[in-house]
Write a structure and sequence with these properties.
317 residues
């Protein structure tokens, strides 16, 4: 199936945990689909601009609804040998599809850490050269390489394993997997149906992974140029969605992806929260803007203000 590819802004995808897979794609040598051109993005602009995002009152976190299993999330995240874990559980019953979804994502994340010497990975991942001199960073990188070592030499079979898990999660109706599928053809050809599914998921199944996948769908649906109409930059938009995921139970602590990525790419390894990682990456002003956006997104989802969330009218040109 043809995939709509979000334009890759590396600095943005570093900061929010669920966008790790974009960093993986950019750093790997695997073939990827062609990204949308500026001309094609322009064809998706709004006929009438949506309401501007305005500063809001201080944020009060929503009650976190019952969502996916934290224990299963942590079990997969902390598996020291992901290949061995995969072989052990891949054929176990998975009625909800959650294990399949999480395992698929974890396997794909490993693609950057296999079949390359540690020294080469260290150089390629270091945005700042001084990062390579940070002992904590080097220990973290070595642990990631070790965790993924079992997939060395698998080639395309590794991605096939991830895709198989995604198919199982979708067949089981796992909400985050359903949201993820909206970025693929033919769903996007029927925009009304895809939007309806995404809205229903936000209204009834709001958990961090659903938020993550719907935000990716909106980026693919709208492009990024539309944000400039009301002075919203890509960084703040992505960070705001990332902070909202924290409020719904995402892993946003010291073991979270954005915190680890700031360590791996910049050598800034003392952060213990996503907010700190955002401040390191974008500065305090960007963090403040993302926090304000988080407030607004939470309220707009709760009130079903879908235009404000990003379900804007698109040109058919």
């Amino acid at each position: 199936m043809k995939r709509i590819v979000i334009p890759v802004v590396v600095i943005a995808v570093i900061a929010i945990g669920g966008a790790w897979w974009l960093v993986v794609r950019n750093a790997s040598n695997d073939a990827t689909p062609v990204a949308a051109t500026p001309e094609s993005a322009a064809g998706r602009q709004t006929k009438a601009p949506p309401p501007k995002f305005q500063p809001d009152t201080p944020y009060t976190a929503l009650p976190v609804p019952a969502g996916p299993s934290v224990s299963l999330r942590d079990e997969i995240r902390d598996a020291p040998d992901l290949r061995a874990y995969y072989e052990r559980v891949k054929d176990l019953p998975d009625a909800t599809g959650e294990r399949s979804y999480r395992l698929a994502e974890a396997i794909f994340e490993c693609t950057i850490f296999v079949d390359k010497p540690l020294e080469e990975l260290s150089r390629r991942l270091a945005i700042l050269p001084k990062a390579m001199q940070e002992p904590k960073r080097n220990r973290l990188l070595a642990s990631m390489v070790e965790r993924c070592r079992g997939f060395n030499g698998m080639g395309a079979a590794m991605l096939e394993a991830s895709q198989l898990m995604h198919r199982r999660a979708e067949a089981a109706g796992y909400p985050a997997e359903i949201a993820r599928s909206l970025r693929f053809e033919p769903a996007v050809r029927d925009l009304a149906r895809a939007d309806g599914v995404a809205k229903d998921l936000l209204a009834s199944k709001t958990d961090p992974e659903v938020l993550l996948q719907v935000s990716h769908y909106l980026d693919a649906r709208n492009g990024t140029e539309w944000l400039r109409q009301f002075n919203m930059d890509v960084l703040t938009w992505n960070y705001g969605w990332g902070l909202l995921q924290c409020d719904y139970g995402a892993d946003c602590g010291q073991r979270s992806r954005p915190v680890m990525m700031v360590c791996l790419l910049r050598g800034a390894c003392d952060a213990v929260r996503v907010e700190e990682a955002i401040a390191i990456q974008g500065g305090q002003a960007v963090l403040n803007g993302a926090d304000s956006l988080r407030t607004q997104l939470a309220r707009r989802i709760a009130s079903q203000d879908w235009v404000g969330v990003g379900f804007i009218e698109r040109s058919n040109k």
